[in-house]
Design brief:
- The structure holds 3 protein chains of 3 kinds.
- Chain A has 2 domains: 3-78, no CATH class; 89-301, MetI-like (MetI-like fold).
- Chain A has helices at residues 3-21, 23-54, 80-86, 98-129, 135-147, 154-163, 171-174, 181-191, 196-204, 209-217, 222-238, 241-246, 255-261, 270-301, and strands at residues 89-91, 94-96.
- Chain A has 14 helices and 2 strands; from the N terminus they run αααββααααααααααα.
- By secondary structure, chain A is mainly α.
- By secondary structure, chain B is an alpha/beta fold.
- Chain B folds into 3 domains: 38-151 and 316-341, D-Maltodextrin-Binding Protein, domain 2; 154-198 and 258-313 and 369-391, D-Maltodextrin-Binding Protein, domain 2, CATH 3.40.190; 205-256 and 399-460, no CATH class.
- Chain B has helices at 8-26, 45-62, 73-86, 101-104, 118-123, 126-129, 160-165, 176-185, 209-218, 235-248, 261-270, 282-289, 329-340, 343-353, 380-387, 400-421, 426-446, 449-459, and strands at 38-42, 66-70, 93-97, 139-140, 143-144, 147-148, 154-159, 200-203, 255-256, 273-279, 297-301, 318-322.
- In chain B, the strands form 3 sheets. Chain B has a 5-stranded mixed beta sheet. In chain B, strands 9-8-10-7-11 form a 5-stranded mixed beta sheet, sandwiched between helices. Chain B has a two-stranded antiparallel sheet with strand order 4-5.
- In chain B, strand 1, helix 2 (45-62) and strand 2 form a beta-alpha-beta unit.
- In chain C, helix 4 (88-118) packs across helix 12 and helix 9 (212-220) crosses helix 10.
- Chain C has a single domain, classed as MetI-like fold (Orthogonal Bundle).
- Chain C contains 13 helices and 2 strands; from the N terminus they run H-H-E-E-H-H-H-H-H-H-H-H-H-H-H.
- Classes of the chains: A mainly alpha, B alpha/beta, C mainly alpha.
- Chains A and C meet through helix 1, helix 2, helix 4, helix 5 and helix 6 of A and helix 1, helix 2, helix 5, helix 6 and helix 7 of C.
């Protein structure tokens, strides 16, 4: 029996006694307690991350989280990790600032997401709403293509990229993922729910096919658009394997690749790496907060309900 | 204002895209001035930093341009292999991680995509100037394909303060038998200010991992012999794996697995384990991961397997290879000599990495006699240099990773057997298990068409 | 609800088309729409031809060769396939991968759905925060995950071990990543932490499809919450649920990076006794660590076949399930 057991037991007691008084209150209590527990487990590593990012190198490994209160001072807790992170690094192309990698990552993630959003939703729309020869075969093909593991094609892909002359260029990262079977499939599923009358009406009004897709259909699948932006941005933002293999020039590298450089084969600078990881979490976190309204409340207000 | 049809998320993406493209255009990257004469790919940031001044001097002296590329180790290898597969451009010079040469040398000698350096090594009399045993792992069928960057002798680092207080005289720990005997007495030894339940004699990874190879080498065993044949089911390996099981399992154990990162540092700081296997490169890790025990740590040679035996081993390393596609092999060789084997220059670099250079003339320079505050005032450069001649020779194969995995697999089964049955039948079981695992690797190698021709060449 | 005839068997068209869509489905004429359709799909066709079909063709040829660079190439027929199918390590990899896939479908997806249901209503800022917290693990990169779990899972000092010890009185000394029988559980636990929030996002979006008036009606009739769940919620989310089950099964059968990062210092990325070896890990080992692209390609084909079979079975099963309602 320890503190943790006591806490859990007392929660159970509260739940049971509430149940007898007012079962609805018990359900509410249970729901929030459960959520709090899950949140605590999910957050613990991040608490560790925040502590680690601000700990001085000298005491980094001494304490699991933070030093005890009496040792809490600028010697043990400071911004040194961030300072060395932002200090321009000497490279063969001259000094490169950390901001450069941030901008590179933002550029690749946002461009990749926007392009693939447009191209995948167009493809999904065509598969959901146009009838044409070969549509079924194409769907089967797409599903089958998802079954092939990417690693199996890494070496052949490398050859293709090389012969296109795209080594060390952003095209090698952006073009192959500009439109994926996964994205098309997702949008196709979402767009089958759009009423055909709407499209018909658009045609009556003399809209072009592209106009119908862009102005009439896309606003109706905004929740899926939001979710897709988030997922696609995250994928690109954290992508490590592909940029690591195809990019060479130091000033073109992305955040995950550069952060990995602090975790060398011989030496590891945990503090700086973790400070960088902490900063790298911020952009997608902001995006999540901004976007979640789109996919939580979007559908209920949309025109899909009949 | 009308809403963006694709929604706010897409609008946000568009805005970020425009802003970041703008930022990229506003601050253009420094332009690279034309094609460099040599491109060198390196996986270690520390090496890049250390080589930069040497390279700058080299560029001035030779009127050429050298580009250093920092590439993640796995990416470097994947890229190099893929490039060689498809005949794409490769760097002129690459630093390879020890244990990865075999992948490139499994073709016939004339098909290996790395430059055969044997004649240059002979004509520069490198085998006399450099620790000779280090060429073993960079050699295939008698031909040298890369130059050793390091020696990486192994010592034991220990908590000097705690050993003194616990009454352990490290000078007497000359063999592993004596070492283990002292370790077993620790169970009942406590200090009044201990923060841990008990002290363990040595940090031994529970699954064996790298340590098995290291101890096997010290014992005179090998994963592969000089002809690339599997040899890790030797009698030395059987004895070692039984020994290792005894030290990490059961009532008489002396080892504890301290792990890596924070867990390793805590174990070191709290004194959970007293002794740690420590090659030269790891001394830097000690200094940076556990600064609070500075002055309480010291180094000693490893205990030998028998009195008067070898008191060191080796762990890790890298080597420099020149690719066949390199258009200026003479210039590349000259750069390699400047980076690796210029005694004054490598000696000056020693304090940055604590890595012992393999060129013997360098060891006469003062940095190797400088005493280290962290390691209780010892001249650690001298200690490692003194062991360099005893560092065991090893060889590489395309199947090194499988062989290491299978060795660990054999150990896992032996350890389970030991935990269940103790000493009864242990040796026979261990021998059988090692044979089974080694045969698996042999079968694997047997179906490799290139390796078969390669070993036929070796036999010729 | 009427079900539109499905054009192909393996795509879950019927139910997906059925949700929210009325029975109206025009006969569309060929001609204009065909041109527009292919025009809309042309970017995909170009990209997939260049970056999927060409490499795939290359890899397919390779599966019948042993190679070591352009100049060393030997035709070996079915030998690569025969070797892989006779290799005990391959079956270890298949077993590990299957265990992981089963765990992610049977443990992780229900948890994701449960969390999504707890958080689906849009009231309050608190829930916005909870959604972010549960999604947070998806925001960090693989390298951090490796560092993090090497700290969580260590004996004596590891956070996870300490928590387990405090809760159950067991686990402080467990060596999760060194003990062959604990490696897969550790990988599954790590993947739970990582991915539970990811699939929650899909379920959150799907739950918006549930008709609240029907839920209310059920409650009025005195139906139990469980019954309401089966009769109202499940039918409404079946299309997206099928998508999530199929894609996350594919994802788990292609598992590689997570165990490889976690086990970096435990058995060279594959764990003791290959206890963390997955099929793609096996592929990677041959293609890149041994430089034998041919055997790697053969493994790739076998895995693709396995995934296709599993996906078709899953989609067939969900078709059955959908039509019984």
């Amino acid at each position: 029996m320890n503190g943790l057991h006591f806490l859990l037991a007392s929660m159970a007691v509260v739940f049971v006694s509430l149940w007898f008084v007012r079962s609805k209150a018990a359900v509410v209590f249970g729901r929030w307690t459960l959520l709090l527990c899950v949140a605590a487990v999910m957050l613990m590593p991040f608490v560790w991350l925040v502590c680690a990012a601000f700990k001085d190198k000298a005491v980094f490994n001494e304490y699991l989280f933070l030093p005890p209160l009496d040792k809490l001072n600028s010697q043990t807790i400071n911004l040194d990790n961030f300072r060395s992170l932002f200090a321009p690094k000497q490279t063969t192309q001259g000094p490169v600032s950390f901001w450069r990698y941030v901008v590179n990552s933002l550029l690749l993630a946002s461009t990749g997401t926007f392009i693939s959003l447009v191209l995948c939703s167009m493809g999904g729309y065509a598969l959901a709403k146009f009838r044409f020869r070969g549509r079924g075969a194409l769907l089967t093909y797409m599903l089958a293509s998802m079954a092939v593991p990417g690693v199996a094609l890494l070496a052949p892909n490398f050859a293709v990229i090389y012969h296109l002359g795209w080594m060390d260029s952003y095209a090698a990262i952006l073009v192959p993922s500009a439109v994926t079977a996964f994205g098309i499939f997702l949008f196709r599923q979402a767009m089958t729910a759009v009423p055909d009358e709407l499209i018909e009406a658009g045609r009556m009004d003399g809209c072009s096919e592209f106009g119908i897709y862009f102005k009439l259909v896309m606003p109706l699948v905004r929740p899926m658009t939001g979710a897709y932006c988030l997922i696609s941005f995250l994928g690109a933002w954290n992508s490590f394997l592909v940029p690591n293999v195809f990019l060479q020039t130091q000033s073109k590298l992305t955040l995950p690749v550069v952060l990995n450089q602090f975790m060398g084969v011989y030496q590891r600078d945990y503090g700086v790496f973790l400070a960088g990881t902490l900063l790298a979490v911020l952009p997608p976190a902001i995006l999540f907060l901004a976007v979640q309204r789109e996919f939580i409340s979007g559908l209920t207000s949309g025109a899909v309900k009949q | 204002m009308k809403e963006f049809p694709l929604g706010n998320a897409a609008l946000a993406m568009l805005v970020v895209m425009v802003l970041s493209i703008g930022a990229t255009l506003l601050v253009p990257a420094a332009a690279t001035a034309g094609k460099p004469d040599l491109v060198m790919a390196i996986f270690s940031p520390e090496h890049v930093a250390a080589y930069r001044p040497v390279v700058e001097r080299f560029e001035k002296e030779n009127g050429c341009r050298v580009q250093l590329q920092l590439v993640d180790q796995k990416a470097l290898q994947d890229r190099l292999q893929s490039s060689l597969q498809v005949g794409a451009d490769v760097p002129d010079i690459v630093e390879l991680l020890g244990g990865t040469l075999g992948i490139f040398t499994q073709a016939r000698v004339e098909d290996v995509k790395l430059l055969d350096l044997t004649d240059r090594v002979e004509s520069d009399r490198l085998k006399e100037r450099v620790v000779e045993s280090r060429f073993g792992r960079w050699t295939s069928r008698g031909r040298i394909f890369a130059l050793p960057h390091d020696v990486h002798p192994v010592m034991l680092a220990y908590r000097r303060d705690l050993c003194e207080r616990l009454g352990i005289d490290v000078a007497k720990l000359t063999t592993w038998d004596k070492f283990v005997a002292v370790g077993r007495t620790l169970k009942d030894h406590h200090l009044p200010d201990d923060v841990v339940g008990r002290h363990y004699m040595i940090d031994l990874p529970y699954d064996g991992s790298e340590l098995l190879k290291l101890l096997l080498l010290q014992r005179g065993g090998l994963l592969f012999d000089s002809n690339g044949r599997v040899t890790f089911d030797s009698e030395a390996a059987v004895d070692l794996l039984c020994w290792y099981a005894r030290q990490t399992r059961g009532d008489n154990l002396v080892g504890y697995s301290a792990g890596g990162g924070q867990s390793f540092s805590k174990s070191l700081i709290d004194g959970l384990c007293l002794f740690y296997v420590c090659p030269d490169w790891r001394t830097r890790q000690f200094e940076s991961d556990a600064p609070s025990v500075a002055g309480k740590i010291a180094l000693m040679p490893m205990p030998a397997w028998e009195e008067g035996g070898r008191r060191t081993s080796t762990w890790g390393g890298s080597g420099l290879a020149i690719t066949r596609r390199c258009k200026k092999p003479d210039l590349a060789w000259k750069l390699a000599m400047a980076l690796y084997y210029d005694p004054a220059s490598v000696a000056a670099r020693f304090p940055e990495t604590n890595i012992l250079p393999p060129v013997k003339a360098a060891w006469a320079y003062p940095p190797f006699d400088r005493s280290s505050g962290y390691f209780s005032g010892q001249a650690i450069g001298r200690s490692f240099a003194d062991l360099a001649a005893d560092v065991p020779r090893d060889y590489d194969s395309a199947f090194t990773s499988q062989a290491s995995n299978k060795l660990v697999e054999a150990f896992a089964n032996i350890a389970i057997y030991y935990s269940a049955n103790g000493e009864v039948g242990l040796h026979d079981f261990a021998a059988g298990e090692l044979h089974r695992c080694a045969d698996q690797v042999r079968r694997l190698m047997g179906r490799n068409a290139f390796l078969t021709t390669a070993s036929a060449e070796a036999a010729r | 609800m009427s079900q539109a005839p499905s054009e192909i068997a393996i795509v879950p068209t019927p139910q997906l088309a059925a949700t929210g869509v009325g029975p109206h489905r025009r006969r569309l004429q060929m001609g204009g729409e065909g041109v527009a359709g292919y025009l809309f799909l042309s970017p995909y066709l170009l990209v997939t031809a260049m970056f999927f079909l060409v490499p795939l063709a290359w890899a397919s040829v390779l599966a019948f060769y042993q190679t070591n660079g352009p100049s060393s190439r030997v035709f070996v027929g079915w030998s690569n396939f025969k070797f892989v199918l006779g290799d005990t390590d391959f079956y270890v990899a298949v077993r590990n991968t299957a265990v992981f896939a089963a765990a992610s479908v049977l443990i992780q997806l229900p948890l994701s759905l449960g969390l999504a249901m707890l958080l689906s209503s849009k009231d309050g800022r608190a829930k916005n925060l909870f959604r972010l917290i549960i999604f947070l693990p998806n925001l960090v990169g693989q390298v951090f995950v490796g560092v993090l779990f090497s700290i969580l899972f260590t004996p004596t000092y590891g956070l996870f071990n300490r928590l387990l010890q405090a809760l159950t009185g067991w686990g402080l000394d467990q060596r999760w990543l060194d003990n062959p029988s604990l490696v897969m559980p550790a990988v599954i636990i790590a993947s739970l932490w990582l991915y539970v929030g990811f699939n929650m996002v899909y379920f959150l979006a799907a739950l918006q499809n549930v008709d609240q008036s029907l839920v209310e009606a059920c409650r009025m009739d005195g139906a139990s919450p469980l019954r309401t769940f089966w009769t109202v919620t499940v039918p409404a989310i079946i299309p997206v649920a099928t998508f999530v089950v199929v894609t996350s099964t594919i994802g788990s059968l292609q598992l590689f990076e997570l165990p490889y990062t976690l086990l970096q210092e435990h058995g060279g990325g594959y764990g003791p006794k290959n206890s963390g070896l997955t099929i793609v890990g096996y592929l990677y080992q041959y293609a890149f660590r041994n430089g034998d692209l041919g055997t790697g390609a053969a493994v790739g084909w076998l895995l693709t076949l396995l995934i296709l079979i599993v996906s078709v079975v899953q989609i067939r099963a969900s078709n059955l399930f959908g039509s019984t309602k």
